Structures are given as structure tokens and as C-alpha cells.
Amino acid sequence: MAKSLQDRTVLNNGVEMPWFGLGVWQVEEGEQVESAIVNAIQAGYRSIDTAAAYKNEEGVGRGIAQSGTDREELFITTKVWNADQGYQSTLDAFESSLQKLGLDYVDLYLIHWPVKGKYKETWRAMEHLYKEGRVRAIGVSNFQVHHLQDLMEDSEVVPAVNQVEYHPRLAQLELRAFCEEHNIQLEAWSPLMQGKLLDEPVLKELAEKYNKTTAQIILRWDLQNEVVTIPKSIQKERIISNAQIFDFELSADDMAKIDGLNRNERTGPDPDNFNF
């Protein structure tokens, strides 16, 4: 069980990844993303998650540089966008991301969405980057069980991570079980359901009981389910507050109460019905 912000899970290739990090989806390029990165790193965060599609990789790179923290201490994730999928185009997209980030390597490179007919070639390119040591781990995002099965049928490297929409109303039980069975680390995007869960009565009641915020209750639930989580925030106070989840533990009964909120309800696109 994670006891501090620096605690890490060990991925299936032996690489260590922080349990908790900062996501920067919809964070504006420039000063906004730079200050979010600097504030997060100063608060003890070591994991930063971006993507080519977020169009803020340059700002993320500048924030990392400004933080003054050793590169080896940080865990940086980015993703290849749908339009760039395919073998050579993925290799080119990776070079572009690396250049924008101003880094020599990334810790985790993900396929952003399972674009039908393309993700296998994309994965082949990522395996190449992995073997070259340009990335420390490779994984996927928004893959359902059948996408993972299809990918793994003829791949050499099992994905280290699957980053998906995950929160108390979308508990992804089948996918979670599959990932556990194959030693693929599940990671949550939109863990707070874009704020839609903050007024949920069950969660508010638990927040009162533990003297925590509703957001902290949800994020703690993620960690106790062994799901890596990367809430987004641009406010320094919220960035610090989100990480204050290592000084308490939800009881088994309270975990079950939160589990009971599951409705298989998405706030983002459905990977099986997404207009790629």
C-alpha cells in the first residue's frame, strides 16, 4: 500500500512508476502548464502525464527544467495521437514529442486510443523504441479487454500500463481483473469524473467521517484498489490537497460503499464507439 507521494509500483518490466502523479489534459500551453508542473514537483510529485494531443508538451518540458529536479527522479509519460498511428509515423511522432519535451527519453509512452487497423503497427514501433532504450516502458490507453487480447496475440512486449477512465461510477471490473491477471498496471484518468462526483452523498459522508475532502476520498479509493492515479489541477492549493491522501486508510466497509456507486457510466468517449 502506498504510504507516501514518492511510493512506486513496480511495472511488469521492473521499472518503478509513482502511484500518484499530475495529469495536464486541458491545461493551457505556456505559463499555466509550467507553473502547474513546478508547483507539483515542489509539492513532492514525481510523475507527470501529458500527450501530444494536449498540445502542451513544450510547456511541460519547460516546467520540468524550471523545477531543478534531477531527471532521473521524475517519471514522464506522453502518448502518440490517433492521427500519427502506424509504424513510421509513430517513430516520427515520438521524436517530435521528445524534442518538445526537451528530454533524452520518456519513462512511459502510450498509444492514446485503440485506432482499429493501426494500433498493432503503432505497437511494433513502440517495441522498437523500447528496445532502443528511448522509452523505459510502453503501454496503452483506453484499451478494452478485447483490444488488449488482440494486441497481445502477436506482440513481443506485454503493455506495462493501461490508462483508462476510472472512477467510482466506472469501476471497470472486468478490465481490472484482466489487467491484474496479465500484470498490466491500471491507471486512472478523470479519477474525479471531471468534478461530477464531488457532491455524491456517500462520498460526502465519508469525507466528513475521515475529515478529508470528497476528492481525497476518491483518490484514496483508487490507491487502495492499486490503481495509479493522475488527477489534473492547475491550482497550487488543489495540487497539494490532492496529494494529502497518504495519512489515512479507508476501511473495507467504506471501500465497499464506494464500490457500490458503480454504474458503468462514462464521462469520456467509449473506446468501442469513438470516431477515430
Automatic annotation (TrEMBL):
Pfam families reported in the protein's UniProt record: Aldo_ket_red (PF00248)
InterPro entries: AKR, AKR5G, Aldo/ket_reductase_CS, NAD(P)_OxRdtase_dom_sf, NADP_OxRdtase_dom
Protein name: Aldo/keto reductase
UniProt feature coiled coil, ranges: none
Domain NADP-dependent oxidoreductase: 21-262
Keyword Transcription: no
Protein family (similarity comment): Belongs to the aldo/keto reductase family.
UniProt source species: Paenibacillus gansuensis
Keywords recorded for this protein, A-Z: NADP, Oxidoreductase
